[in-house]
Amino acid sequence: MRVPPDNTVMPMKGRGTSQLQEVDRWDHGVGWLAHPDETMQRASHIVEVNGDVWVFDPVDAPGVDDLFAEFGDVAGVAIGLDRHKRDAAAIANRHEVPVYVASWMTGVADELDANVERFGNTLADSGFQTFRIVDRSVPPWQEVGFYHEELRTLFVPETVGTVDYFCAPGERLGVHPMLRPFPPRRALYGYDPDRLLVGHGAGISENAGDELRTALSNARRNLPNAYIQVVKSMLSN
After folding, report:
1. Which residues contact 38 (CB under 8 A, 6 or more apart)?
2. pLDDT tens across 73-108, in order?
3. pLDDT digits (tens, 9 = 90+) for 198-225
4. Burial track 178-217 (b if 16+ CB lie within 10 A, e otherwise)
5. Would the pTM count as exceeding 0.85?
6. Cβ–Cβ < 8 Å for 141, 82
7. What is the CATH superfamily name and number for domain 19-125?
8. Fewer beta carbons below 10 Å: N end or C end of the chain?
9. Which residues of the chain are in CATH 3.60.15.10 domains?
């Protein structure tokens, strides 16, 4: 999902009235943008596992509950990044389910006005394996990845994305600008998903594993052009 041309001024983060736009629809889930015109392109996702719907890093929008109902009953809402509390509590409370937060994440659970459950190496009984992608205090960044082996699906909340300000020219998938100098390759190289879901932009459903490895391998090499792209994206707002 790309932002409009530079001559169109778009907000970095959408505010006010939201408008649901689908991305990443497949047999077991769908993603959506609550503010399609924002530069950040904050993407939210649901994945259905045996009739249970798991919601990841959601931004609320009109019609989102109908979207959930297409796939089943909501079993839980998961937060993948310490900064992605978004509307997790509101959606969890509406469906009377917990917000799931990694056991090692700090400063997140206390800020959620909802029932919170902690998870370790697996996300409850969802079948998702979980793992640390980034865990550091300076600058603050705690990010957990989710991988479902049977569905061959990987969700990376922040380290990689498809929006313009993540990507150098010619890149389909790029590493977050702050992580390009030292991308978390060790955490992600071992995964070879068929489908990659990201927290910013539309995901990748073809050659996802190859695209992920390419993005991580080229992060430093393409750093100068990527930073130029970041500046262009900021100046267009």
Report:
1. 10, 11, 12, 13, 14
2. 999 999 999 999 999 999 999 999 999 999 999 999
3. 999 999 999 999 999 999 999 999 987 8
4. ebbeebbeebbeebebebbbbbbbbbbeeebbebbbebbe
5. yes
6. yes
7. Ribonuclease Z/Hydroxyacylglutathione hydrolase-like (3.60.15.10)
8. C
9. 19-125
